[in-house]
Amino acid sequence: MSISVAVLENIVREAGSIALSYFKNLDNVGVIKKSPRDLVTDADVAVEAYLKQALAEAYPEYGFWGEESGQSDNQTNRWIVDPIDGTHSFAKGQYFWSISVALEIAGELVAGSVYAPALDDLYLAIKGQGATKNGKAIHASDETSLANSMIATGFACLRSYLVENNLKRFCRIAEQTMGQRRLGSAAMDLCLVADGQVDAFWEQELNLYDVAAGALIVKEAGGTVTDFKGNDGVFPKQILATNGGILKELLPLM
Hints:
By secondary structure, this protein is α+β, with helices and mostly antiparallel strands. The chain has helices at about 5-25, 40-60, 85-90, 155-160, 165-175, 185-195, 210-220, 245-250; strands spanning about 30-35, 40, 65, 70, 75-85, 100-105, 110-115, 120-125, 130-135, 135, 150-155, 180, 200-205, 225, 240.
């Protein structure tokens, strides 16, 4: 596997430029409902179309899985893409949304980038090479006390009308922590764990394209990615990312 960091960054930044062109003109952006609580915009479609073409031109040997266009023929080695993670935030003119691009080779995540164009923050990781934000190395926090921690979560489970949802879990954990955040982009939430801005993030009922890039970035920044029982791995339906220091204290509350 040979991926050029510069090529990947250029592609992701160009995707961000396309997204921003729509973001700055939201009154003219088409928005439809994929389901009663799930949106897709013209920007989602345009960004994914660009990424599909640009990644294929740069790396024709890899397949593609995008949230909007689905899966190509080659899914053994593939790019996994969420063109705009946090579409609701995007459509409301909020800044906390991102573009997520990951490369998976034979079931292993080996490269990932998450770019928040409205904030101009670009996170990137190559397996075994650490994680960066805007070119500078980042690391998960060294906090070891849940009582002193800031945590983040989301509620995709409510969008799916699940009876077994995140509300009770959130209340249980929030009572034990110093601060709580609900920001609207799982990909960005994971990057905040990697960057030490929050100490843990969890969510349920996500998809791999929501978390693939961010999960690798967390691991390369020294954090942990598990399910709610502490099993190591990327589990979109039940993902828990931590700085490592509060994992044991957090698990019994999950």
